[in-house]
Amino acid sequence: MRGTVLYAPRDVRSEERPDPTIVEPTDALIRLALTCVCGSDLWPYRGIAPIDGPTPMGHEYVGVVEEVGSEVRLIEPGQFVVGSFFASDNTCEICRDGYHSSCINRQPGAPTGSQAQYARIPLADGTLVATPGMPTEDMIPGLLAASDVLGTGWFGAVAAEAGPGKTVAVVGDGAVGLLAVLAARQLGADRIIAMSRHEPRQRLAREFGATDVVTERGEEGAKRIKELTNGLGAHSVVEAVGTQESMMQAIRSTRAGGHVGFVGVLHGVEIPAEEYFFSHVHLHGGPAPVRRFLPELVEMIWNREIEPGKVFDLTLPLEEAAEGYRAMDERRAIKTLLRP
Ligand SMILES: [Zn+2]
Ligand SMILES: [Zn+2]
């Protein structure tokens, strides 16, 4: 099969790779309908997160089940399925509490890499959610977004306790931040402030439900959020970047008693403990338990209540994955779809 491998920073290659096979009796094999590049793939691409030799890339996936292992009961060949970046059993106490991304049997969701034609998915019964039928072509990008960026943005908004009566601010205008805006809207927030200085992303944020846009960032950004909220700060802030500046921007934009949902993978962030102590801000986040939300997200997409696939603004054949990475790295694209 054709698959995508990162050899070294900025060295992405599309090459022939061995076809994945069933390894564990709980595995499924899927044929990817569409796949994509993630903002988090840019960390190793830029050399910020080290890699240990050539690494198959991709952790977001939707597709048709080709084959299942002998212990798979719920998932069947021929079904169209959505999974996410961690495989989970969906049965342990931690999963039952909704924290599938800390499942006691957690594994990588697509260990063979999903920027490929086929992928092996561990713990198929717990990990995969089947759609009610075969989706139409136009629905597939939205389902793929549910696999990570929508699920992650959704968790960010839930962790920030976005809802009726709340003012929500979103730090970060990548796919996750934009979809956190959509999530906040769906969860019934009164006012949603997107923090972005890029015009096309501001437009999409407004389409997804942002009521205000703030272009300042860092200290200035936090100051602007306070000005817009009677000097108090937002009730709920979603942090969808993961840098020192964005994390502090999020905490300092939140009112006393408010909540920060942080879902940007943190890199070298240190939170000053004393400032945090006196802030009265709740922090909750981490790798999103996307699996918790998948059934309801799939249903909303199936019923055409939301269109999260709009975050994909570049489509390339799988063979041109390297250009897909470059476009995102240079911020020419929000998110790249790859056609296997
Ligand atoms: Zn991702
Ligand atoms: Zn579990």
Give a description of the structure.
By secondary structure, the protein is an alpha/beta fold. Helices cover 29% and strands 25% of the residues. It has twelve helices and 18 strands. Strands 3, 5, 6, 9, 10, 17 and 18 form a seven-stranded mixed β-sheet that branches. Helix 6 runs parallel beside helix 7 (199-208). The radius of gyration is 19 Å and the shape is globular. The termini are close together. Bound molecules: zinc ion (2 copies). The site of one zinc ion has 8 residues, from helix 2. One zinc ion (ZN) binds next to loops.
* Beta-strand proportion: 15-25%
Gyration radius, in Å = 19 Å
Q: What is the general shape?
A: globular
Given the structure, what is the number of helices? Answer: 12
The percent of residues in helical segments reads 25-40%
- SSE order: EEEHEEEEHEEHEHHEHEHEHEHEHEHEHE
